[in-house]
Amino acid sequence: MEQNTPKENKMGVLPIPQLLLTMAVPLMLSMLVQACYNIVDSAYVARFSEGALSAQDALTAVSAAFPIQSVMIAVSSGTGVGMNAMLSRSLGEKNFKEADRAANNGAFLAICSTLVFVLVGLVITRPFYQSQYPLSPAIVQSGTEYLTIVTSFSLGLFFQMTFERMMQGTGLTFYTMITQMTGAVVNIILDPMFIFGIGPFPRMGVAGAAIATCIGQHVAGAMAIWMNRKYNTEIHVTLKQVFRPSWSAIRRIYYVGVPSMIMGSIGSIMYYGMNRILAGFDYTASAVFGVYFKLQSFFFMPVFGMNNAIVPIMAYNYGAQKRSRMLQCLKTGILFAAGIMCVGTLVFETVPGFLLSLFNADANMSAIGVTALRVIGIHFPVAAVCIVLGTTFQALGKAVFSAANSITRQLVVLLPAAFVLSRVGGLGAIWWAFPIAEIASLLLTLVFFRHLYRTVILQVEDRR
Asked: Do 306 and 20 form a contact (C-beta atoms < 8 A)?
């Protein structure tokens, strides 16, 4: 059956500021809801205690799961980045058969990734916690329960990320906002019910938080599949095509996506390493580090949401040979991101005590946390520039630059700097490793972008 050729996609014709706002605002709002969920989820857990498990231990157990969870997100997001780059570029070239191939193979890879992480969760979860908290059986036990549930029921996460990226790749970000917000709201509602045993639900503590998370992800994933079938007319995903993988398409997806996966996974290694350094001083410092990651998401997540809009816009106009629109998108994105991050710095510098009080912080946790938030918050505006330029690398098929930058920032600079500072200046000095690493990241990012500008962007025609 022949398909009608779709009209020119809005990514190639709308004025860039209007286009970026139209596509980014729904994603940014949904990311804000996700960030609020992250904060509310941990705030609930920080008020649960039972037997040998204190409220702070419960918070530490959930926060310590971040490295494995972030690898899951990195794999799903990286696959989505690679799929979107192929999908959006194919749409820009009017190659609709190739766009369908990208979408169907993205769905196939989501299923494969789920199976891998089910196995990972069953095998390494307990050793993972024991290596960080050998003197706290309560943290090990509750953390193992939490992470085993999250990994074993990860299909919702992978389907949600994959099918939302399909809508982002075709400019339907409004529907992405609906799925993400719905999943987060379901999660927020179910969290206290499963954690504290409200109504007909049993009191499950940390395990209850994991169950609520998985239910929210599965609801969002199911909605994303349905909305693609109903509203996304530019691509066509069918079970028959999903289970007929194209190895050439998978190679193209992973060529762009693997560097993005590496970047996310590098963050997990950094988090694990920082936890080991901080736990040498005080387990409370590890809890503070986890709280920081929850709080910073309130500002970083909207920027990441905007980046999810920048990738298809840049890739589409690259395929359509519209250089001026690519550059305008880049400049507008940096301006928006820097504005958001400046607000983040202002909040971290002025009200760190209030932020920590959201997590039931005692005097010791507040003393450590106020210093940490004020020092780390300095680097937010610099991070804005690095994030948007790194997104440009991914959109134009040079994600290896982003991966190299991430490795340098988090492994070559941040962890060694934190280790040295811990020996020289003690716990309070460790936090300065973040601004130091971000400055190094900015310098390397500018070097990579200069090369990309000369070899790729200037070679693009400027069709009107």
From this structure: yes
Domains of the chain, residue spans = 13-459
Three-state SS for 299-360 is HHHHHHHHHHHHHHHHHHHHHCCEHHHHHHHHHHHHHHHHHHHHHHHHHHHHCHHHHHHCCC
Q: What is the DSSP code (8-state) at residue 411?
A: I
C-beta of residue 317 within 8 angstroms of C-beta of residue 325: yes
Q: Which residues of 34-61 are buried (b: 16+ CB within 10 A; e: fewer)?
A: bbbbbbbbbbbbbebeeeebebbbbbbb
Query: What does the pLDDT average to over 368-386?
Result: 95
Determine the Cα–Cα distance for residues 145 and 383; give it in Å rounded to an integer.
34
- The 10 Å Cβ neighbour count of residue 116 is 14
Residues 427 and 420: beta-carbon distance below 8 Å: no
Q: Which residues of 327-336 are buried (b: 16+ CB within 10 A; e: fewer)?
A: bbbbebbbeb
pLDDT class of 214 with cuts at 50, 70, 90? very high
Q: How far from the centroid of its chain's Cα atoms is residue 271's Cα?
A: 14
The residue among 122, 72, 15, 38 whose CA lies nearest residue 296 is: 38
Q: What's the rounded Cα separation, in Å, for the pair 273 and 183? A: 31
* pLDDT attached to residue 1: 41
Amino acid in the structure at residue 31: M
Short-list 34, 364, 395, 74, CA closest to 185:
34
What is 68-122 written as a DSSP string? Answer: HHHHHHHHHHHHHHHHHHHHHHHHHTT-HHHHHHHHHHHHHHHHHHHHHHHHHHH
Lowest mean pLDDT among 171-175, 225-229, 241-245, 443-447: 171-175
DSSP state of 429: H
8 pLDDT tier (thresholds 50, 70, 90)? low
Identity of the amino acid at 204: M
Helices 380-395 and 283-319: crossing angle in degrees, nearest 10, is 40
Q: Which DSSP symbol is given to 6?
A: P
For residue 53 the two structure tokens come to: 């498990």
Cα separation, 121 vs 58, whole angstroms: 19
Is residue 53 within 8 A of residue 201, CB to CB? The reply is no
Secondary structure (3-state) at 322: strand
pTM of the model: 0.75
CA pair distance 254, 81, nearest whole angstrom: 9
Instruction: Please check the confidence at residue 205 and state whether its pLDDT lies above 70.
Output: yes
Distance between CA atoms of residues 245 and 242, nearest Å: 6
